[in-house]
Amino acid sequence: MTGDGDGQPRRSGLRDPQRAVRGLGAAALALEALVLLLAIQPIRAVGADLGGAAIAVVVALAVVSAVLAGMMRRPWAWHAGTVLQGLLLLAGLLHWSLFVLGVMFALVWAYALHVRRVILG
User: Fold this and answer.
1) Which of 44, 69, 82, 99 is deepest in the core (most CB within 10 A)?
2) What are phi and psi of 9, to 5 degrees?
3) Are 26 and 116 in contact (CB under 8 A)?
4) CB contact at 8 A, 25 and 116
5) Where would you find the membrane-spanning parts of this chain (predicted)?
6) Which residues of 73-111 are buried (b: 16+ CB within 10 A; e: fewer)?
7) Rounded to 5 degrees, what are φ and ψ at 94?
8) What is the pLDDT of residues 83-120, one digit of tens each?
């Protein structure tokens, strides 16, 4: 492995590991925002009584996810993304399908955190 100028070998072989990890986190959150927005109508179509407040919660989670995707340069954004996954799991109280989405995206986020830890140490 080659060094990066300060005598430390690169752990991952990536040219810019910080940027790669930020991209992974941003992609996961952007995908989450898109899926949440696209899930509103199918949830309503299968007979769920999603009221205005429940739809507002889903839209708010999607907006927060999209905003966090754009803020992955900030160190606290990773922690906020973890909190977001917990909030999505709690949204499962509104409808079971939101809990399923919460589990899926919590697993995706856990994988992103694992990759971050492996690459950045």
Assistant:
1) 69
2) -70, 150
3) no
4) yes
5) 20-40, 52-71, 83-112
6) eeeebbebbeebbeebbebeebbebbbebbeebbebbee
7) -80, -40
8) 999 999 999 998 888 999 999 999 999 999 999 999 88
